[in-house]
Amino acid sequence: MWKKSIKFIVLLLCLTIFTMACSKKESLPTALSLEQSIKEIIISKGANYDFLTDTAYMEHMDKLGAELTNDHKSPHYAIGNLDEDSIPELAVFKERDPKDINDEGSLEIYKFNGEKYTSIDKISMNYDNTNYQIVIGKISEEQNGLLLNNQVGAHSGLTYGFILKDGKLKSIFNENKISLLSIYTDNEIKDINDDGILEFSIYITDPETKDSTVSSSDKMTLWYRWDGKDSATLLEVERKDYSKDESDKEIFNEAKDLIENNLAEALKYMDKHKDELSKYDNTELLMKYMKILDEMSFDEGVEIENLFIKYQNNENFDYLFKKYGLSIEKLNSLEYLTREKVLKDEEELKKHLIDHITLGYKLDTSEGIYYYLIDNQKFVDTFGQNITNEYNDYLKILALDTNEPFMNDGSLMISMDKLAERILLVESFKMVYPYSNLLPKVDELYKWYIYTYFYGDNHTPNFNENTLIMKEEVLKEFENAIGKYEYTNFADIIREFMENLKQNNNVINDEIRVKLDERLN
Ligand SMILES: [Ca+2]
Ligand SMILES: [Ca+2]
Known about the structure:
There is one protein chain. By secondary structure, the chain is an alpha+beta fold. Among the domains are: 50-238, no CATH class; 404-521, no CATH class. The chain has helices at residues 2-43, 55-68, 249-261, 263-273, 279-311, 319-324, 328-331, 334-337, 347-359, 376-383, 389-403, 416-432, 439-455, 472-484, 489-503, 510-520; strands spanning 77-80, 89-94, 106-112, 117-124, 130-138, 144-152, 156-165, 168-171, 181-182, 189-190, 199-205, 219-226, 232-238, 361-366, 369-374, 407-408, 411-412. Strands 5, 6, 7, 8 and 9 form a five-stranded antiparallel β-sheet that branches. Residues 10-29 have low confidence and may be disordered. It binds calcium ion (CA) (2 copies). One calcium ion is lined by residues 191-193, 195, 197, 199. One calcium ion is lined by residues 81-83, 85, 87-89. Keywords: Signal. This is Lipoprotein.
């Protein structure tokens, strides 16, 4: 009896194995046929064939793409050309398994190897929750690439860009140069201007929003295209039109008229009525006003210098200082200047100073010569709450330098660490306001600061003037800054500069200078 049972059990086992083998066999032909069909299509076509328009090929590839994603969900894969041969590659986003804390999710590239599609590279997707767009296409005139949008955190989006280089994925964006984070997943990858090259958008809170809560703040969409290096060029901005904000147009026109025809009265009027105008209109007026101050400053500077000379009666340049116990601070104080006894014998000089400081100038001196600077701090203090955040932040950058000029008569006047802080402030302006029309001016200042930071000033270069070898103490300073400001573009620039320098035996020559120029452009 028990023998019979064993026989039965053995038979049953055999049957089970047989059935399993059968079912395995049954699934094999379809898998084979997908690979086989793809192979057959590919090898039947010539080198210039456009597979992406071949319906049969695309249908099969769609199946393969869906099979290779973890959740078999589209659109977590993209089909397109990433390298020289015309046979498309397949990029697959593999969502992480939330139950497996070691699974970071991945991006994998498959390439046809003559037989079938096999994985050629795989990179981590950094625990991103999921993907909501993945596209392969032209990202510049000569380059194809892969762009993808992943969902991260509670509701944000993160954009990535890659090219395939020597069969490996290479990231094309430096996050210290461009912010790729969208507050919601409302950003897109598409060709917005029908030129065949992909653009991508970033969806962020408008820096000018009044309401700063994430959900109800004003949003803006920035459309970018890859710049061919490690950042992107801004092509288009979609945002609220703040010029339509409520504002008293009569007052605006009156202020504009004063700026053009009666400058001495304009500022008082603008200050008095600033609450009746929108931030947009106040900014427009102030920019107009300051442009005129800037244009006049040279001539007015010559005038004040001539007045000092006139009243010095051929004495030393500090004659008046001694006569009245003056200081540059006192000469910039309206309260002091309007005192009856101050400069009582130098009426023209007194009036010029009072008039110009009221206009918003600041008297400064270098090597015994007097001139006017624009007192940017005064405008921040007076109009900061009534102008756009963009213009206010711009004026704050300028104010740092008019309050405490970094350079005087060719000498660096502030510590390298202070200079680094100013560089970072400019850098953050560039990140926050990538659309700003003020960027050319900001960039000019940025470069001037950076060149001074690396090379030193005219009188004390950062390198030995005979050997051109960089000074040890300066290299130390660089290292400190890298540690202190680790995750900034500036730290990247210093790192790269030091690396180039090291390979050049710490000698500052044209080669090093050209490399820094290129990095900054
Ligand atoms: Ca290819
Ligand atoms: Ca385009």
